[in-house]
Amino acid sequence: MMPKQGTFWTRWRVTLGYPLAAACLWGARPTPKSLVIGACIAILGLAIRGYAAGYLYKGEGLATSGPYAYTRNPLYLGSIVLAAGVIVATWSWVASGMVAAYIGMFYPAVMRREEVELRARYGEAFERYALQVPQLWPSFRPKVSSEKRFSWAQYKRNREYEAAIGLLVALALLAVRMWLRWR
Fold first, then answer.
1. Are 9 and 106 spatial neighbours (Cβ–Cβ below 8 Å)?
2. Is 4 helix (H, G, I), strand (E, B) or coil?
3. Model pTM?
4. Are 147 and 129 in contact (CB under 8 A)?
5. Does domain 7-182 have CATH number 1.20.120?
6. Dist CA 176 CA 64 (whole Å)
7. Are 105 and 10 in contact (CB under 8 A)?
8. Mean pLDDT per segment of 10 residues, for the chain of length 183 residues?
9. 178 near 30, Cβ under 8 Å?
């Protein structure tokens, strides 16, 4: 049985994400240039997340291949890059501060909670992995061997395409916001 420690952070991370997104949209002041630059950054984050999702077999074993050989949390790294892109697209210091506070408050706690679960489930294997691979910011060389290959089927099973849909919706809403401001 997995530990219940830290469930507050996991539950509220999602619950508060939606009003945060609405507040960022409300305060957004996008420009054509900020939308293009932000979209490019966000797409990079989306690619990192998608790459990680193709290697993640939840509950079937410790993920150490592909991007997991560079960072223990490539999905969160991708989410941070994606969020940075959306923030650039908003062209708002207020939105930037809110998202930075959100990430700073929730992501470290959620990563700690997940590591407690991984230690409980994989024991010594996770300990060795955690000693070799950085928690978030990736190393430039893989720290463990990559045994598995990227799987589009796994990408789909992990429903990572939902992040792409979310990004498209966010960029479309920002484009509408820009258009309404410039009319």
1. yes
2. coil
3. 0.87
4. no
5. yes
6. 41
7. no
8. 52 70 87 96 97 92 92 96 94 91 89 92 94 92 77 93 91 91 71
9. yes
